[in-house]
Amino acid sequence: MRVGQKNKLTYRWARKGTRPRAAHDQRTQSAYLFGAICPERGTGAALVLPACNTAAMQLHLDEIARRITAGAHAILILDQAGWHGAKALVVPNNITLMPLPPRSPELNPTENIWQFMRQNWLSNRIFNSYDDILALCCAAWNALIDQPWKIMSIGLRDWAAIGHHQ
Fold it and tell me: Fewer Cβ close by (within 10 Å): the C or N end of the chain?
């Protein structure tokens, strides 16, 4: 998820017949939050990086691999962004990549996580500096990780658990 000074605006509550004000910055500094969740355990792994490319994706895969419970295997659902399936990626042995069909973000639970984080912590604000962007991305991710029930609620998909026995 890109987070930056030229950020997205989200809906706000307002009295009927009024237009709520929302700050909107025209500067262009941004950072990228690479995140993955485990909806079954209510946890996740993330990095905030300055670029969105194959090298960043490799760092993200390595971070996820470190966070997977010993002896477990993760299936990482992702869209078909170029850096997600780049030939240069070295996928760790405890991760399997599962690319989604094109133009189907509704199948990716992480898209709902990004929406939740924007609505609650990252949208409708002015970031003072690049360091402010980094700090607020980290704070937002840590706030999410402190709510495992929220990760479970947002991230669980019935279709992903078919045949899974608990």
Answer: C
In the chain, the amino acid numbered 165 is H
Q: What is the pLDDT of residues 70-84, one digit of tens each?
A: 999 999 999 888 788
Structure tokens at 127: 């970031």
Distance of CA 2 to the CA centre of its chain: 9
Who's near 50: CB < 8 A, 6+ residues apart? 31, 32
Domains of the chain from N-terminus onward = 29-159 (3.30.420)
29-75: pLDDT as tens digits: 889 999 999 999 999 999 999 999 999 999 999 999 999 999 999 99
C-alpha of 78 from chain center: 11
